[in-house]
Amino acid sequence: MDFFNELGPAALGSRLRRLNDTMTGQAAEVYGLYQLQFEPRWFPVFCSVALEPGRHVGDIAERIGQTHAAVSQVVKDLVKHKLVQVQRGATDQRRSNISLTKRGAALWPALQQQTTDVRQATEALLTETRHNLWLAIGEMEYALSRQSLAARVKAVRDARVASAVRVLDYAPQYQPDFKQLNLEWIEQHFRVEVPDLQALDHPEEYILQAGGHILLAEYQGRIVGTCALLRMDDEGYELAKMAVSPTAQGLGIGFRLGEAAIARARTLGARRLYLESNTKLVPALQLYHKLGFRKTVAGQPSPYARCNIQMELLL
């Protein structure tokens, strides 16, 4: 059985590369039919220069959808083979304008005729297939411009991880995890303060008995995340002590914990959620914004020296 058929759509990129290799190899045969000393990979750049002489590398790269570096390399090859020439711009010496040489201009009519023949042959080839590959490629490019493949894979992975994550209520046996997870990020970026140790060493006294709640995320049999809801005096809760193990970051666990904390606050009748953070914690602030929190200046002075931003979410 064909290797790519075994892998299925997961090997789409590799399958397209194989098709590209096949067509590039056969394109070289086509150039041979017309006695043209020309490499297939030169064609988009050369054609662009022939149709619009005087363009610079950046213009060509944008028009044909290739990187600046890739176009620059092709231009160097074309210059080496005396098919194009590069001249400094008359008004901007920093921009190099590219045009055909006499040799390139002499080659262009034969290349145009070959292109016409190739278009006719390719159109016939497309009629032999049930699905028009040219149109399908356009659809694929549009879909990927709307959402990248990496983003699509991340959504699938996050959904899989989310289904394997259990959000648990605090129990005494989880106190070491609760403390360690928070100490990891605090010590990495700041210094541990007295209020930290009070809440982390004695969560029952300083959080639970005061009307608060602690949630933990269990993944693959380990506690990898935690957050707390601290009871406030204004029918609200403070979202605090949120931490995710470095080994589990990037899996959407923090977002899952945040959603669970918001849901718990709503069931408790809270009117708002409040939090304190620091602007150097960019990923954390991005998470809070994604959860719906917005910056506020209405909070009371923080007991933590590291706090320089306060946020809230109205429920």
UniProtKB/TrEMBL annotation:
Protein name: Bifunctional helix-turn-helix transcriptional regulator/GNAT family N-acetyltransferase
PROSITE patterns from the UniProt entry: GNAT (PS51186), HTH_MARR_2 (PS50995)
Organism (species): Hymenobacter aranciens
Domain N-acetyltransferase: start-end pairs: 176-315
Keyword annotations from UniProtKB, A to Z: Transferase
SUPFAM superfamilies recorded: Acyl-CoA N-acyltransferases (Nat) (SSF55729), Winged helix' DNA-binding domain (SSF46785)
One Pfam family in the UniProt entry: Acetyltransf_1
Residue intervals of the HTH marR-type domain: 9-158
Transmembrane spans: none
